[in-house]
Amino acid sequence: MKTLDMDNRADFGPDGKNPELLRTLAATYGERGVAPALERYRRLAEDLAVSLPAGGRNPGFRFYSAPGRTELGGNHTDHNHGRVLCAAVRLDAVAAVSPRKDPIVHIVSKGYARPIEIDLRSLEARPEEAGTTQALARGVARGLSERHLSRTGAGLCGFDAVIQSEVLQGSGLSSSAAIEVLFGTIMADLAGVKVSPVDIAKIGQYAENVYFGKPSGLMDQTASAVGGIAQIDFADPASPVVEKIEYDFERKGYALVVVDTGGSHADLTADYASIPTDMKAAAAVFDAGFLRDVDPGLILSSAQAIRAAAGDRAFLRAFHFVRENARVPLMAEALKSGRLDEYFALVRASGDSSWRFLQNLSAPHSPREQGPCVGLALSESLGSDSAGRTVVSRVHGGGFAGTIQAYVPLALMGDYTGLLESCFGPGRVIPIAVRAPGAIRVF
Fold it and tell me: In Å, how far are 57, 59, 138 from 54, measured between CA atoms?
């Protein structure tokens, strides 16, 4: 096995002397995260150097990052062409990459025993790869090639990569979207083409839907690719409207966290699928494909017609969509105007609507397992700090199991972590500070 000459480690990874690099890392990870990030990228470079074939030493390593995301508002609205408020977070998937001269992509994922490999000359979807990282890589390559490279004459470039992700699976922070967007960013950069963040997101969604085999809206990938806090309107999914919003919760005295309540996502596919199915069944009463295409007043005045055609739950979920879709721009405006109390009132209303009307906090077939509900109850019980600030919490992401989201006054962070982790276990309270850059080539 080839070993790395440690006297030349600057040939392989960032050396911490480049001012532009240091500014990029500070914007991406915060000032306190610069040193750990440098060490993380150095370790990736060392692992990549060791994994390359004999004679494959390449001082031109490239480094990429794609963030996880958190949903701030718009719970289960994107799949019916609604609005969302979301944010990229500092937990990310990163890669050290070395270009190849042949059309082979060889990827080592840290924490997984077997590397993956795809031949860029064969990009058809393979049923046996469904549900795998290999499917995502192949799907992103196909999407990029067909949608962008074919128009420019550029070609896909093979590469070796070592990837490591801090976006934990099952955390509700969209680990798959981060990987998809990471692949798209790498492949576009190596091909020498400029692809917009929204187009990178669309390619990632295509890979997830068609190759990986998981239906999804476009919020996760767009949030990762765009970065920062973003209000996204999916009225026309082919051309989503993205508005960036600057806001720093920590400077206002709050830590943004998610709490992993430890619930299993097994056997929940039907529960997740029932939400867009119910919403589309309600839309069909008005000969529409999606609720966004129906006048909100008509939905609210046609409760009996929806109940008769699609059932009570379909009406309640349509009711949630109407209110939640209208709530998102109010949340965005409250942040832009610095009206944090108003924003938090809307956060609470969003969570309440998800619990009562969307009904996605627990699975009906598993009444003994209601971790998100327990987490919200404990969050509400904590009380206030000396300034009268309290924890504000809501369901996070898909629901039914998994995570809740909370804005915790900094003075209460120790008490909050102790209380929630006494119930759900050590390490289950995860800080997720907002990060400004989306998917980027770091160096």
Answer: 8, 14, 26
Q: At what angle do helices 133-144 and 197-206 cross, to 10 degrees?
A: 130
Secondary structure (3-state) at 228: coil
CA 205 – CA 280 distance, rounded (Å): 20
Strands 104-109, 159-165: pairing is parallel
Q: In terms of Cα–Cα distance, which of 215, 214, 210, 208 is closest to 125?
A: 210
Contact 134, 184 (CB under 8 A): no
Distances (CA, A) of 227 to 67, 182, 220, 334: 8, 13, 11, 20
Return the ∠ at Cα 416 (arms to 353 and 166), rounded to 5°: 85
Of 388, 432, 385, nearest to 410 by C-alpha is 385
Distance, in Å, from the CA atom of 373 to the CA atom of 401, rounded to the nearest integer, reads 9
pLDDT for 241 equals 95
Nearest CA to 181 among 217, 141, 224?
A: 224
pLDDT at 55 over 60: no
DSSP state of 384: B
Secondary structure E strands in 188-280: 229-233, 241-245, 254-260
Cβ neighbours around 350 below 10 Å, total: 26
Whose CA is closest to 143, among 194, 106, 100, 187? 187
- Give the pLDDT confidence of 63-94 residue by residue, as tens digits: 999 999 999 999 999 999 999 999 999 999 99
Is 45 within 8 Å of 61 (Cβ atoms)? yes
Using alpha carbons, select from 435, 19, 40 the residue that is nearest to residue 247.
Answer: 435
Whole-model pTM: value is 0.89
How many Å apart are CA 140 and CA 224, to the nearest integer? 15
Point out which residues pair with 194 in neighbouring strands: none
HSE-CB for 26 with a 13 A CA cutoff: 8
**What H or E segment, with its residue span, contains residue 284?**
helix 269-284
Task: Give the C-alpha separation, 333 to 286, whole Å.
Answer: 31
